[in-house]
Amino acid sequence: MSAATIRTVYLNGAFLPENEARLSIFDRGFLFGDGIYEVTAVLDGKLIDSALHMARLERSVGEIGGRLPITTDEIVAIEKRLVEENHLTEGLVYLQYTRGAEDRNFFYSEDLEPTLVLFTQAKTLEHVAAVEKGLKVKSMPDQRWARRDIKSVCLLPQVLAKRAAKAEGFDEAWLVEDGMVTEGASSTAYIVTRDGRIVTRANSHATLPGCTRLAVLDLAREAGLVLEERPFSVEEAKTAAEAWLTSASNFIVSITNIDGVAVGDGMPGPMFKRLRTLYMENARRTAI
Fold first, then answer.
1. What does the DSSP assignment read for 70-115?
2. What is the distance between the alpha carbons of residues 171 and 167, in angstroms, rounded to a whole number?
3. Bridge partner list, 177
4. How far apart are CA 220 and CA 55, in angstroms?
5. 151 carries an active-site annotation
6. pLDDT tens, 72-95?
């Protein structure tokens, strides 16, 4: 690894070269998947939807009975420093929180000191081929745990679903439960009906409360578009006018193919293009 490629990372109060950062083999994130993560997009060297991500982080940590070792304002300051020190203009800031490290025991100590790790990752987010061509998704059974509203580091079902989808030439997996799409393996799922209604599931324990989802739906309401928060089936999606996904690492991207069936005319639609433009304008206006 050359010096030019060594990033600065944050680990438990210290800023370190990535090749000097060390975690205990007894960390509960490693032994039990006992942890939470967040990911915030960076455009033009600024954080996108930061307040939404920090609010979700606090909620997820609270839902597992944990506590953050520092405030979210301090976390944002760390993210900004990492962006600056790593000269990141476009990409992602990842945060991983775990309950801490001690001898393996399901019954963790209440006074355990949490582990907090942050690092950056360069990635092209704005000018990507998917914006012009759309993505292909593969539907498959949702095999995740029942508390998907918690942004847990336990991502094995999503890893397996994405791997299976990619093996068949698809870009993302849509997870299906009781005949209805819950969400993508790492994204929120949407369709646009033939009469112009935007449909996505309401937040519940069945899905992750997406930060980009919240921002996009707020913009849709401001634009006077009609929203329906309800489940939809794969078959309804295949006959929809449009389909999309949202996530911090994709913003909003059109889905043009589901299980080999073209959605609409097989190209990104006008509703997607309108909301993509609105989202990008708002993201830059509100970035910090």
1. S-HHHHHHHHHHHHHHTT-SEEEEEEEEE--B-SS-SS--TTPPPE
2. 10
3. 180
4. 21
5. yes
6. 999 999 999 999 999 999 999 999
Amino acid at 127: H
| Residue at token pair 């490629």 | 5
What is the C-alpha separation between 166 and 134, in angstroms, rounded? Answer: 15
B/e letters for 170-201, b = 16+ CB within 10 Å, e = fewer, are bbbbbbeeeebbbbbbbbbbbbbbeeebbbbb
Residues 6+ apart with CB under 8 A from 147: 63, 205
Task: Compute the distance between CA of residue 39 and CA of residue 41 in angstroms, rounded to an integer.
Answer: 7
Question: Per residue in 203-222, pLDDT tens?
Answer: 999 999 999 999 999 999 99
φ/ψ of residue 144, rounded to 5: -85, 175
| Maximal C-alpha separation, the chain | 58
Residue that is written with structure tokens 């942890």 in the block? 35
Q: Which residues contact 214 (CB under 8 A, 6 or more apart)?
A: 52
Q: Cβ distance 9 to 16 under 8 Å? A: yes
User: Among the options 136, 138, 151, 162, which is catalytic?
Assistant: 151
Nearest to 16 by CA among 86, 70, 100, 89: 86
